[in-house]
Amino acid sequence: MGSPITAAYLIVAIVAAGALEQLGVPLIVAHLICFWYAIDSEVTPPVCISSYAAAGIANSHPWKTAMAGWKAAKGLYIIPILVSTSPIVPATWEGNSVMAIFLAISTATIAMIVFSVVLERYYFRKLNILETFLFAVCCVLLMLPHQLADYIGIAMFIALTFIVYGTRSKAAVIPGYEPNTETTLEKS
User: What is the spatial distance between Cα 83 and Cα 62, in angstroms, rounded to a whole number?
Assistant: First the structure.
């Protein structure tokens, strides 16, 4: 907490890299995970140094900036788990087909998008509780290291996208606002 990224990485690597390797994670991936979690110390309250620096630059409330940064960076907790359980990193490509690697990268990307949708409860429009729950289920399916779960998660994501996109309002209605239909050419 509060140490520079290099020092934080050294502390985490000394404590966790060997344990991750004993769990079957390749050594390079174990060190990548340690570095990734060391970076997370920069945006996790209460000692989020980079968030406080950003608040000073933006002249905003430090704690609100820290919480917004923490919320936006929650993918940092999930990406290392995805890296350790799927063939995303070249060190884990041995014995995997090109299709398995492409599927792992695609589902990880979609999972991060869906995770953001769940956190914000917004995707083309504000989501209700049921839609948020369905997106959360979709996110979990996309993160499981099984191809069947990946295919179900992708199908669910596509279906939810069509449903949400199809039910969004065509234009936001603002009381008392009349849109200006004149174009710049008509004014001149």
Answer: 32
Output DSSP code: residue 175: T
| Neighbouring-strand partners of residue 122 | 126
Question: Which structure tokens are listed for 91?
Answer: 């060190």
Cα angle: 149, vertex 84, 148; to 5 degrees: 10
Contact 29/84 with Cβ under 8 angstroms? yes
- Kindly report the pTM of this predicted structure: 0.69
Q: What span, in angstroms and rounded, lies between the C-alpha atoms of 55 and 53?
A: 5
Q: What is the DSSP string of 13-76?
A: IIIIIHHHHHTT--HHHHHHHHHHHHHHTTTSTTS-HHHHHHHHHHT--HHHHHHHHHHHTTHH
CA distances from 119 to 72, 114, 116 (A): 9, 9, 5
134 has pLDDT over 60? yes
* Residue 42 CB contacts under 8 Å (≥ 6 apart), including other chains: 5, 48, 49, 50, 51
pLDDT per residue over 71-125, tens digit each?
878 777 777 777 777 666 655 556 667 777 788 888 888 998 999 899 889 998 8
d(CA 110, CA 155): 11
- Long-range contact pairs involving 131-137 (C-beta distance under 8 Å, separation at least 24): 131/160, 131/163, 131/164, 134/160, 135/160
Q: What is the mean pLDDT of the chain?
A: 81
